[in-house]
Design brief:
Largest sheet: none
Number of helices: 13
Distance between the termini: 39 Å
Radius of gyration: 25 Å
Helix content: 55-70%
Length: about 200
């Protein structure tokens, strides 16, 4: 059946599908294709109808992505206090699920570990400088590593300019800081979605 399916697909699509199979299975199916020349048209039609029926039988889901991705996406853009509270509750109810969500979350504090140094200039180009200054000035605690990661991986001239503006700005209101850091994260996610950057895998 696999050999017949591949034989009927366009060459490019067949090659793509074959590349996703384990090596031993790909070899067996490729070898089986040598015998598809003797398969009757009626048999091919029956295989096609059976496969189509199986595809139609797949349940339609209401959401894109799994529950881990959906929860992480919501928490990415939630205030840090809310995010911490939700994660604490998840850990108490379902520790395994909570751990999966933690790995899927990407916040400003994760930039230091997951944004490659070479990609820092790419993300700073798409962010309004006032927003970037606010986000960097508001970075405290775990987020300080991400602040330093950004400043250390851009031109010295720009980094000095940003540091001066951060000093002039002084203490940032928590709400303003959260919003600015969320904008930075959104820009990183946008570039990742468009394929301009690839985030490093989280530890563990």
């Amino acid at each position: 059946v696999g050999a017949v399916l591949l034989a009927k697909l366009p060459t490019g699509k067949a090659a793509e599908l074959l590349g996703k199979l384990p090596g031993d299975k790909a070899r067996r199916i490729t070898h089986a294709m040598s015998r598809t020349g003797r398969v009757a048209p009626e048999t091919v039609a029956r295989i096609g109808l059976t496969l189509a029926a199986q595809f139609d039988a797949q349940p339609v889901t209401a959401f894109e992505g799994g529950p881990v991705e959906r929860v992480a996406a919501v928490l990415n853009f939630s205030p840090s206090a809310t995010r911490d509270d939700v994660l604490k509750g998840l850990e108490e109810d379902d520790a395994e699920f909570a751990e999966q969500v933690k790995k899927a979350i990407f916040t400003f504090a994760n930039i230091a570990d997951r944004l490659a140094a070479r990609d820092v200039p790419k993300i700073t180009r798409g962010i309004d400088q006032a927003v970037l200054v606010t986000a960097l000035a508001a970075a405290t605690g775990e987020a300080e590593r991400s602040r330093d990661h950004i400043l250390e991986n851009m031109s010295k001239r720009m980094a000095e300019s940003l540091r001066e503006e951060m000093a002039e700005l002084g203490k940032v209101k928590e709400k303003d800081g959260e919003e600015a850091m969320t904008e930075v994260v959104a820009e990183i996610r946008r570039l990742e979605a468009e394929g301009d950057i690839i985030l490093l895998s989280p530890e563990g």
